[in-house]
Design brief:
This protein is α/β, with parallel strands linked by helices. It has helices at residues 4-9, 26-34, 48-61, 80-89, 91-96, 116-125, 139-147, 159-168, 198-208, 222-230, 252-260, and strands at 15-17, 39-42, 66-71, 129-133, 151-156, 172-176, 213-216, 235-238.
Length: 261
């Protein structure tokens, strides 16, 4: 198939395996890329050094293009009293499982915003694509990635967010509808959420921009893919559909629950 997504990333199929932090692995991403689509890993929950190792591992397993996903949320604000209250609130659960309370809370998901170390890792690794979730980085970061011939993508959950993505110079918009299985990349958790379906969102975004649009959220099979392509999507992104793959890091218990559902 020939779409703008396929042309930009030299793909055989207009399909992206969603990054899925904690579930997608280098092995999964490489298997997808080797099959002619775009495999993805997420480095939203790891350090820059760990990210460099993950990317290198993935690139060693495939000669195909890969996508590396980063989180662009507002950095957490520390509040000692509030954090202590959270720890205290869960003390009965820790006692139930005979586990010591943590002395403090730690931030798992570091933001890519103003993260010079992570940006340098991406510049040096030069994956085919870098995608942004929960927001978009500043113009300097985008320009530095594009100078390395890296294709950029960003999630949008509304036409307003899509317009911001288009203005930033990013190459591709990932239209993530309300059916998304894990979490959606809503830019501002304090702002109103239109909760548009993937079908409605793809159509709305295409009215506002000529950028290629990738449909994401609730797409699970060939019929769903065909529907999105008929709406004018340049490609599709599937997440939950890949969770049961043998290369996924999903636990046995989660796999059983997903199959039962």
């Amino acid at each position: 198939m020939t779409t703008a997504l396929c042309q930009l990333l030299k793909l055989q199929y207009p399909l992206i395996q969603a990054p899925m932090a904690g579930v997608a692995t280098p092995q999964l991403a490489a298997a997808v890329s080797n099959a002619g689509a775009l495999g993805s890993i997420s480095v939203g929950a790891v350090t820059p050094q760990q990210a460099a190792e993950m990317i290198a591992h993935t690139q060693a397993l495939t000669r195909g293009p890969i996508n590396v996903n980063v989180f662009c949320h507002a950095p957490a604000r520390r509040d000692a009293a509030r954090e202590a209250a959270w720890i205290s609130r869960f003390s009965p659960q820790f006692a139930q499982y005979q586990t010591a309370l943590p002395p403090a809370l730690t931030e798992i998901y570091q933001s890519f915003l103003h993260n010079e170390a992570m940006l340098t890792v991406l510049e040096q690794a030069r994956p085919a694509a870098v995608s942004f979730h929960f927001g978009i980085p500043d113009a300097t970061a985008i320009a530095r990635l594009k100078q390395r011939d890296i294709v950029t993508l960003a999630t949008a959950t509304s036409p307003q967010e899509a317009r911001a993505v288009a203005r930033s110079g990013i190459d591709i918009i990932v239209a993530q509808g309300y059916e998304a299985g894990g979490h959606r990349g809503h830019f501002d958790p304090g702002a109103p959420d239109q909760q548009l379906s993937t079908v409605a969102l793809v159509q709305a975004i295409r009215q506002h921009t000529a950028l290629p649009v990738v449909a994401a959220g609730g797409v699970m099979d060939g019929a769903g893919i065909a529907t999105m392509m008929k709406l004018g999507a340049s490609g599709v992104q599937l997440g939950t559909a890949f969770v049961l793959c043998p290369e996924s890091a999903a636990s046995a218990a989660y796999r059983r629950a997903l199959l039962a559902a």
